[in-house]
Q: What sequence folds into this?
């Protein structure tokens, strides 16, 4: 970045040469008389050599140059309140707004890369380019002096300090028009001055910073890495001389993009970041669960707004508010009304420092934490869809019966019961299986390559290994669903056949529509979907698909049942009725790499056991 900046300076000097040409003067030595003594000639002003004028040169103090900020490891540190929330809820929450400073770009850029704000105020050190044409020929590069002036030959000194950039062109044109008529003029800023400011208090990197004069308080915060873990985002102070402190609330910027309080910096400004204020945690059915800082009296409605609102706000009719007391959630309010009334009620519920609040609304499963009230979501072909509170020890069958059972289209045999704790355990085992498979790939490749010397054979092994690596990447994409296999008999079962498995908070139940087809995929002559017909077996459907082709492995044929179980010669035998919705798979033969073959079979075994066979196949086919 430093070398690029220096290259930019070289280009600037090439584009805007600073050669000083002597200005021809009349015998009287008056700039004014020189301009008026030449009948119809157009006065030409190309450069200056005068004691009143500062030549255009590199400022003595160069703005501090920043490499693009690399994420600071201290940004990953957590506050004591974050640890407290994690211990109390079992969930790690981020502090709202801290991600803004996790990957800060370069905060100072040359003028060529930044557009000058129209409200920018001209001051000492600014380099201006002035062009005029018509009855006057002006071509000047000038720098504002310490007294705030620029010197224009044949015109004199013009005070420009304090003039806003948007007014500068008209201001200079008015000054020149006192001497010349019938001309046009343009002015631009070649290079802005620099300001030195101080960032103190609970900053990520407190210190002195030299920034472009176009910088604002926000730019200084980015340069210093923002507030530290112990620093406030709600009460940042800007101190300027003996003037009154100006407060800046980052939440205004984060929540609504409001930069009205983002003041332009001046030389000598001090930015003070005080200690963080009271903190509260909000989680549950909101778009952005996080830890928030309080600045004044705050309600739960305010916090929900900070979190982006409810996930299911469009159809929100009921909200349950819970508060952590002695590490257990207790209900503090249950509101059931229209959205406007719910919002008014939430606005009356104040939050206190260190509160941990959970809000729950229909449409999302509760988060995992110790709860006194438990909820389960039911979807699909049931008489009532939605989120239901369950009684202690209530079973799957009991809940389905309580909500009215299934519709006429309900396919009980395909019932899915997904549980988060099961999903986590299954995913760990899947990841372990992939790890073993990848390790086998590398060991096998090393051994086979060590015993080969023929280039063609080595190339073939390398190609095969690369193919296996791509397969392992696809295996990595297989994600557990947390499905609990219910071991139902066949497609004829009813609700009464559902097992009495106790439900847990956060469970998801889905009952699909009745199906009428059977899929045959893999190494067959015509992969297809066939209408289910009672009495047909696995090999009957394979015959309909043209039979096993020459690359198919007949000994490894298996059937993925719609209830999540798998039938094969290696897993319980192929016998049994083929039910609507089942998928029959004919694998390809694997001729080489016995260790790898065994590893892949072990992996598919895990998929079968977890009811992920169909999902895994879809992933591997993509």
A:
């Amino acid at each position: 970045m430093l070398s690029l900046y220096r290259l930019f300076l070289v280009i600037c000097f090439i584009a805007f040469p600073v050669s000083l040409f002597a200005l021809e003067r009349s015998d009287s030595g008056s700039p004014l008389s020189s301009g008026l003594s030449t009948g119809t000639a157009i006065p030409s002003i190309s450069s200056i050599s005068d004691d009143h004028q500062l030549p255009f040169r590199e400022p003595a103090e160069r703005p501090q140059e920043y490499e693009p900020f690399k994420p600071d490891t201290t940004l990953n540190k957590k506050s004591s309140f974050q640890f407290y929330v994690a211990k109390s809820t079992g969930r790690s929450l981020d502090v709202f707004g801290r991600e803004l400073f996790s990957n800060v770009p370069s905060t100072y850029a040359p003028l060529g890369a930044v557009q000058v704000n129209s409200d920018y105020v001209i001051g000492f050190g600014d380099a201006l380019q002035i062009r005029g044409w018509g009855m006057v020929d002006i071509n000047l590069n000038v720098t504002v002096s310490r007294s705030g002036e620029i010197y224009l030959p044949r015109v004199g000194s013009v005070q420009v300090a304090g003039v806003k950039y948007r007014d500068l062109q008209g201001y200079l044109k008015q000054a020149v028009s006192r001497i010349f008529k019938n001309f046009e003029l343009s002015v631009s800023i070649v290079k802005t001055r620099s300001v030195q400011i101080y960032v103190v208090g609970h900053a990520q990197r407190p210190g002195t910073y030299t920034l472009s004069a176009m910088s604002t308080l926000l730019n200084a915060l980015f340069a210093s890495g923002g507030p530290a873990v112990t620093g406030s985002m709600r009460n940042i102070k800007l101190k300027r001389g003996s003037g009154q402190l100006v407060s800046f609330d980052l939440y205004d910027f984060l929540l609504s993009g409001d930069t009205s309080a983002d003041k332009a910096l001046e030389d000598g400004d001090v930015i003070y970041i005080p200690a963080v204020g009271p903190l509260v945690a909000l989680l549950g059915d909101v778009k952005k669960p996080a830890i928030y800082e309080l600045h004044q009296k705050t309600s739960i409605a305010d916090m929900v707004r900070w979190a982006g609102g409810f996930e299911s706000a469009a159809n929100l009719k009921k909200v349950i508010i819970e508060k952590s007391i002695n590490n257990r959630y207790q209900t503090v309010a249950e509101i059931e009304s229209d959205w406007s009334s719910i919002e008014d009620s939430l606005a009356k519920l104040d939050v206190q420092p260190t509160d941990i609040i959970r809000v729950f609304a229909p449409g999302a499963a509760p988060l995992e934490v110790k709860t006194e009230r438990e909820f389960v979501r039911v979807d699909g072909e049931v008489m009532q869809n939605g989120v239901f509170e369950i009684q202690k020890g209530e079973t799957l069958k009991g809940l389905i019966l309580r909500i009215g059972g299934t519709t006429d289209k309900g396919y009980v045999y395909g019932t899915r019961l997904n549980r988060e704790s099961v999903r986590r355990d299954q995913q760990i085992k899947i990841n372990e299986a992939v790890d073993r498979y990848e390790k086998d790939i590398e060991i096998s490749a090393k051994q086979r390559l060590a015993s080969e010397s023929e280039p063609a054979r080595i190339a073939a092994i390398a190609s095969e290994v690369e193919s296996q690596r791509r397969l392992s990447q696809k295996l990595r994409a297989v994600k557990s669903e947390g499905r609990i296999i219910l071991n139902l008999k066949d497609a004829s079962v009813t609700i009464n056949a559902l097992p009495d498995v106790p439900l847990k908070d956060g469970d998801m139940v889905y009952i699909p529509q009745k199906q009428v087809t059977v899929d045959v995929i893999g190494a067959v002559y015509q992969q297809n979907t066939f209408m289910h017909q009672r009495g047909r077996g696995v090999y009957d459907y394979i015959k309909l698909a043209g039979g096993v082709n020459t690359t198919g492995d007949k000994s490894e044929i298996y059937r993925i049942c719609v209830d999540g179980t798998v039938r094969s010669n290696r897993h319980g035998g192929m016998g049994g009725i083929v039910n609507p919705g089942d998928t029959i798979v004919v694998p390809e033969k694997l001729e080489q790499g016995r260790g790898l073959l065994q590893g892949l079979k072990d992996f598919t075994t895990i998929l079968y056991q977890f009811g992920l066979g169909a999902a895994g196949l879809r992933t591997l086919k993509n």
